[in-house]
Specification:
The protein is α/β, with parallel strands linked by helices. It is built from 10 helices and 8 strands. Helix 1 runs parallel beside helix 2 and helix 7 packs parallel to helix 8. Bound molecules: 1,3-dihydroxyacetonephosphate. 1,3-dihydroxyacetonephosphate (13P) binds next to strand 8.
């Protein structure tokens, strides 16, 4: 399995800014990426094409969408489809990111519909899960992750390949706060995720990549990558600067 080093640019960067960061990143990573690692940049929809034109010609570099709507086309104002993402060069997409769940109000059922639809329509899907601080304090981490995985994976195609499905564990309290989860917390949570995947998808569970996200920085990425069941990272703030993200990628 290839480790996946992913950058979620969220709602940052205009077209010009995204193009400039992508070009800088291409210069920093070209010819340096270890064979066992791939890199994914997830810009806003508006700069997907600009970023994919610069990065996808380079071996091991991919772009993805932050979200999509689970329909091929139709009267869904403001939404975009998996085919539209693919048309701009994206082969990956996120579902269920914490900010979509907790700021935009997406529930487990919609996240499940999106995950299934994306996989059915040729995208590699990164299903994001993670507990809120009050759920952690109440000792409910395993239960919350299990619920999000069950709902998120409920309707995925039976023939789903391990390489097309990724799970990102992003504890809500660690996102954008500078408060990275500790090694024990990460390892324990990733262990819960692996165990639940083994129940739900026994044939492919051990080959599904599990990413950690939440305040990943150049100075903690190497230690996080070394933990059991950590097969990559999903980086927000520290991915906005090419030099800092390239250090994480090469950590
Ligand atoms: P930060 O790296 O800014 O904490 O964001 C993590 C995240 O939400 C990535 O999807």
């Amino acid at each position: 399995m290839k480790e996946l080093m992913a950058a979620n640019w969220k709602m940052y960067k205009t077209w010009d800014q995204a193009s400039a960061t992508a070009s800088e990143l291409a210069g920093l990573l070209h010819g340096k990426l270890p064979a066992g690692r791939e890199v994914l940049i997830i810009p806003p929809f508006t700069s997907l094409k600009a970023v994919s034109d610069v990065l996808t010609p380079i071996e091991g570099l991919h772009v993805g969408g932050q979200d999509f709507y689970p329909a091929q086309e139709g009267a869904f104002t403001g939404e975009i489809s998996p085919a539209m993402l693919a048309d701009l060069g994206a082969d990956y997409a996120l579902t269920g990111h914490s900010e979509r769940r907790h700021v935009l109000g997406e529930d487990d059922a919609l996240v499940g519909r999106k995950t299934a639809f994306g996989l059915e329509h040729g995208l590699k899907v990164i299903l994001c899960i993670g507990e809120k601080v009050e759920e952690r304090k109440a000792g409910r981490v395993e239960e919350v992750l299990a619920r999000q995985l069950e709902a998120g994976l409920a309707d995925i195609p039976k023939k789903t390949l391990a390489e097309n499905l990724v799970v990102a564990y992003e504890p809500v309290w660690a996102i954008g706060t500078g408060e990275v989860a500790g090694p024990d917390e990460i390892q324990t949570a990733h262990g819960h995720v692996r165990k639940k995947l083994q129940q739900l998808l026994p044939a492919i569970a051990n080959e599904i990549r599990i990413l950690y996200g939440g305040s990943v920085k150049p100075d903690n990425a190497g230690a996080i990558m070394a933990l059991d069941n950590v097969d990559g990272v999903l980086v927000g703030g520290a991915s906005l600067i090419a030099e800092s993200f390239s250090k994480i990628v090469l950590a």
